[in-house]
Amino acid sequence: MLIDIGVNLSSHRFRDDRRAVLQNALDAGVEKLVLTGTSISESKETIDICNVFSHDFPNMLHATVGIHPHNADQFTRTASEKMYDLAGEDAVVAIGETGLDFYRNLATPKDQQESFIGHIELAKKIGLPLFLHERDAATRQLEILSDYREHISKAVIHCFTGDRATLHKYLDMDLYIGITGWICDMRRGCDLQAMVADIPINRLMIETDAPYLLPQNMIFKPKNKRNEPSFLPWIAKKIAIHRLESVNEIIDKTSENAKVFFGIE
Ligand SMILES: [Zn+2]
Questions:
Q1: 231 C-alpha vs ligand 1 centroid, how far in Å?
Q2: Which burial class, exposed, middle or buried, applies to 157 when counting CB atoms under 10 A from its CB (0-12, 13-18, 19+)?
Q3: pLDDT for 206-227, tens place per residue?
Q4: 156 and 204 Cβ atoms separated by less than 8 Å
C-alpha cells in the first residue's frame, strides 16, 4: 500500500474526472490520499470531496485544514475560528498547509508569520499534526519552529526542496520530511537526490503534490502534463535508487510513517 500525503484534489484541473483519478490511484496501489487545504474555501471543498467519495472509496480520503502562505492575508481571528470548526470534521487529520514562502512573497512576510503562528496554536489546541510548507524562508521558519517546538506534537515539511544544512536542522527538531517528484527532475532534483539518504527511514513520507510536479522520470508522460496520485510509485522508485534501498521498503516504511503521523488506519 502506498500513501500520498499531499494531493490538491480540489484543483480545477481535477474538476471533471475526480472519480477516475481516484480509481487510477487505487489501481496503482495508492490506497490512501491526504488532500491539502490551502484556504478556508479550499479546505471546505476538500472536506466535501472526502465526504462525497467516502461511500465508493471507503477509508481512502483524508484532509488537512489550513491557509497556504500565499493566502496568508486571509488569516484572521474569524478565519481561525472557522478552521477550528472545520478541523472537527471526521475527514480532517492535520492542520496546514502553513509556513513561510519568501520565494514568491504573494502575501507579506508579516502576514505569513502571523498566519503560521496562528496555525501552530490551532494545531496545539486541537491536538493535530502540522503540514508545513517552506520555500526560501528556512532561517525564519526554523526560528519560529524552535520557539514553538514544545507546543508542536508532530510536523512534516512537505515538498522539501532546501539545502542539506536545513534538512538536518529540521531532522534535529524531529520533524518528518515529505518528498515529491521534485527529486525526479534531472536538473532541479540533483541536490535532493544527493541528500535523500540522510533522512532516517522513520521520518520519510512521499507525496505527488498533484496536479503539480509531474515526475520527470515517467516513461509515458500524460499530454496535459497533469500529475496524479497514481504516479506516486515513480517517486518511490527514484527515492529507492538514491537511498540504495528496495522500492518495496520505501513503499512499506513511508506508508507506515504516514499512518502513524496522521493517525489513519
Ligand atoms: Zn506547499
A1: 18
A2: buried
A3: 999 999 999 999 999 999 999 9
A4: no
Instruction: Give the pairing type, strands 130-135 and 92-101.
Output: parallel
- Measured CA to CA, the distance from residue 201 to residue 256 in angstroms comes to 10
What is d(CA 47, CA 9) in angstroms, rounded to the nearest whole number?
10
What is the Å distance from ligand 1's center to 135 Cα? 8
pTM over 0.85: yes
d(CA 138, CA 131): 15
> Residue 118 is placed in which grid cell?
496562528
**d(C-alpha 154, C-alpha 262), whole Å:** 9
CA–centroid distance, 155 to ligand 1, in Å, is: 14
Distance 253 CA to ligand 1 centre (A): 23
Per residue in 13-59, pLDDT (tens digit) is 999 999 999 999 999 999 999 999 999 999 999 999 999 999 999 99
Closest to 254 measured CA to CA, from 153, 183, 152, 185? 183
The residue written with cell numbers 513511508 in the block is 254
Which residue ranges form the domains of the chain, and what is each CATH number?
Answer: 2-262 (3.20.20.140)
* C-alpha to C-alpha distance for 30 and 177, rounded to whole angstroms: 19
